[in-house]
Amino acid sequence: MKFILGVIIGIAVGGYLASNMTDEQRTKVGDAAGKAAGTVKQSKVVTAVADNAAKVTDTVSERAADAVDAAGDKVADAVSTDDASVS
């Protein structure tokens, strides 16, 4: 709830400030935001997060596949046990 309230207040303040800016000020803010975004894209942190995300995805995929295999084996055993008891 606090996060949503913060977002709403930030949008309101940003809208107020943007409407009271001159074109030159808007250009300066836009350029600064573009530089900041470029810096973040090129940072080592982004690279590290992307690499780790790939590793986590691979690990989760393997675990999910193992869980599905184990569940399939249990179902197959249960079905074969039921078939044996019926005969």
In short:
By secondary structure, the protein is an all-alpha fold.
Give a description of the structure.
The longest helix has 43 residues, at 44-86. It contains three helices and no strands. It has helices at 2-19, 23-42, 44-86. The termini are far apart. With 87 residues, it is mostly helical. It folds into two domains: 1-40; 43-87. The mean pLDDT is 80. It is elongated and about 85 Å long.
Q: What is the topological layout?
A:
Elements: H1 2-19, H2 23-42, H3 44-86
Instruction: Provide the succession of SSEs.
Output: HHH
Gyration radius over CA:
27 Å
General shape? elongated
Indicate how many domains the architecture comprises: 2
Portion in beta strands: under 5%
Q: Could you describe the largest sheet, including whether it forms a barrel? A: none
The proportion of residues forming helix, as a percent range, comes to over 70%
Strand elements, count: 0
Structural class: mainly alpha
Gap from first CA to last CA:
61 Å
Number of helices in the DSSP assignment: 3
Low-confidence stretches: none
- What is the oligomeric state here? single chain
Taking all residues together, what is the mean pLDDT? 80
